[in-house]
Backbone:
């Protein structure tokens, strides 16, 4: 099977502890960065379809801005609130400084960590 990863966002453009919605085909996917770990889950709340990236990232959970449903960004599991089901998760990786997502392959358990050679230099400012 052909490699089906699509570049969606420069890694440097996604700040630590933030999430951004990207479009891959017809899917809206939330790319979430927690430290050097990346996660990719459905971007829309399973309750009423609100973009979850407009809510808060608390630990490893996205909190819906409308009715506070909570979803784990690692597993996609709904943790609480009125969402009707879990979020789908996707494989995500970093290549040549770009975050790439596959919507064709199931995500293995656990977060994706960019390999050391793929990680851009991190600039620390005081
Ligand atoms: S729209 Fe997300 S919890 Fe209601």
Residues:
């Amino acid at each position: 099977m052909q490699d089906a990863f699509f570049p969606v966002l420069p890694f440097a453009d996604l700040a630590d502890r933030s999430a951004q919605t990207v479009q891959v085909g017809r899917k809206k996917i939330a790319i979430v960065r927690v430290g050097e770990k990346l996660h990719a889950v459905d971007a829309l709340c399973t309750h009423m379809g609100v973009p979850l990236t407009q809510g808060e990232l608390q630990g490893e959970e996205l909190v819906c801005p409308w009715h506070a449903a909570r979803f784990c960004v690692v597993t996609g599991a709904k943790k609480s609130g009125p969402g009707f089901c879990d979020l789908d998760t996707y494989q995500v990786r970093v290549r040549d400084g770009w975050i790439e997502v596959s919507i064709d392959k199931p995500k293995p358990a656990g977060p994706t960590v960019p390999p050391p050679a793929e990680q851009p230099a991190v600039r620390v400012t005081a």
